[in-house]
Please model this.
Amino acid sequence: MDTARLEGLGLQVREDVAGIEAVLDLESSPLVNPVTKAFIAEVTFQVMGDRLIPISPAAVVGLAPILIGALSDVADIEALLSDAFNEHIFHVQRRSAELQVLGLAPRVDADTLELTTRVEDGPLTVTLAADRLGNFRIVQAEREGAEVPGGAGHTLELSEFRERAALTGYLAALLGEPASRPQASPPGAGLVRFSDIVEKFGMESLVPPRSSLELLAQLQVDGRPYRFAAARIAGRTFRGLLAGAQGKVWAGRFELDEFPGIVRMVAALLKVRPEAVRLVGPDAPQE
Model:
């Protein structure tokens, strides 16, 4: 990138062994950190090809890169940076409200403005963090204080969970928690099979339209263990998850009327014959 072009845009340019950096002076129209109320009067960009990538201060790291070719003067940079920063703050506020509805405590770091929360479910503790566009990912997962291998990195759409129980059930299935519970308690303790419900309440009993509903099934496919979980979103719409020993295989929405059944759906997702899919009980040995 021609440094004269950057200087012509009103940026201060400096070069070192790490590459080219461009500094934007915001004294006349600073950004405001909504947590500390402090002004952000200067932003440093890393110049990568035709893009300006915010790298300092921490509150702007991760904002969308700015395309240099679309700029005519420093006002364009200020406007694009301000829009991206304000959009991030909007997502922090929006997602914080969604977390509170679920009974979870939002935490916003004063320096980075990163939104995180902790989801606890028995021995499982999951830390979620939102990116600058409000998309959540798992940054840490622990079971009884020990890190869950392969737990970090999974993403999820928070708005699809109307109840905290649906979110905790999804995370537990994703991270393999249900399979470990029988080891810590007597076999079958606390577990309810749908056959028990049908036997005790009858085939004509109904699930109220607004109540939550979660299902968990353990399977073996050609001898390998999998977990299928589903949580009702609303009405006859569900959010489903298929996870294996290495984590999530598939996740998405489905309508109950179009659902082909667990065995057929898993067979289609894994591209195997339905005969290779076998539903097993919660106390089946896990490989």
